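Researcher: Batch entry, complex prediction.
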Amino acid sequence: MIYFVMFAQLRQFLDILISDFLHIFMPLSLRTSGNYSTITRDKRITKRYNLHYLDGMMLLNGKKILILGFASKRSIAFGIACSLAEHGAEIVLSVANDKLAQRAKLDCDHIPDLSIFTLDVSEEKNIEQTMQAIHKDHPIIDGIVHAVAYAPKESLQGHITDNLTSEGFHSSLNISVYSFLKIAKYAPQLMPNGGSMCALSYIGANQAFPGYNLMGIAKASLEASIRYLALDMGKYQIRVNGISAGPIRTLASSAIGDFRNMLDHSEKNSPLDGNVTIEEVGDCATYLLSHLSRGTTGDVIYVDHGYHSTGALSVNKE
Ligand code: NAD
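Model: Structure tokens for the complex:
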């Protein structure tokens, strides 16, 4: 009898070892193609950790997520869309104009059941119309990601007061912050079963970086908006959080005068090697939009290879 129990335990151990090995080393295309069943592995992990709510499911199976802010394959929104889709979510994209809608169709053709809307968030009435159009086509969604930001290029060069205009200040905060608040107004209607909202921030919200200027002011306001929205949205079972990403080369970041320095400084002073990637940010978004983060709201999570947590690391890193 004792030999039988030992044999059964050994078989279970080998089973898990082999499935973990396959999951790590087998390419994604094979894992999802039916040659190897992710669901079988998930069931084994479910058994091991007693995670009944994951039984046979990917983290975002059956969830529909609206993502604003795709511009190219370098966009953080693209990294997020890929990660969410990989975990089973259906993606609804909102892009600034028709040209970007065409690009999204090409760049995101691997994402199943993708639907695309156009929305220039600088006009308040556009936000209302598009949110209603999305609601008509997709009566229930489960999450919203805001990866939209803008500041006039000249305001991101030199000193904060060098190229400061009232118009630039208003358009930066209107597009980068007000749009998030305005979209949140429709969140209870779009997410009647509760859900999760997430916006993209940068450490320039809390610390001054040369050239980040108006964007830093906008991000500080965005992070405050996250906390106020979280406070009010709790009663609708809607959580509101932010991801503070490390510097990444994208269209938006190319407008920042001192961006090269931001990349170099972050790389030299982060505990983890290299700079952060859109895939790493995407995976954190998957966590924030999934059931796993159900106890977290009003928070901003850093995905910056630990840069925010260090002092003069470059001195010791060599
Ligand atoms: P990106 O240029 O790929 O994305 C910015 C998006 O904002 C684009 O899709 C653009 O079309 C959209 N946008 C600008 N004005 C708009 C308008 N009026 N209406 C609708 N959409 C509009 O750059 P990204 O770096 O992926 O930026 C995504 C988010 O991540 C932004 O909030 C940015 O501040 C934030 N972020 C970026 C970095 C970085 O280093 N790249 C770091 C931290 C946070």
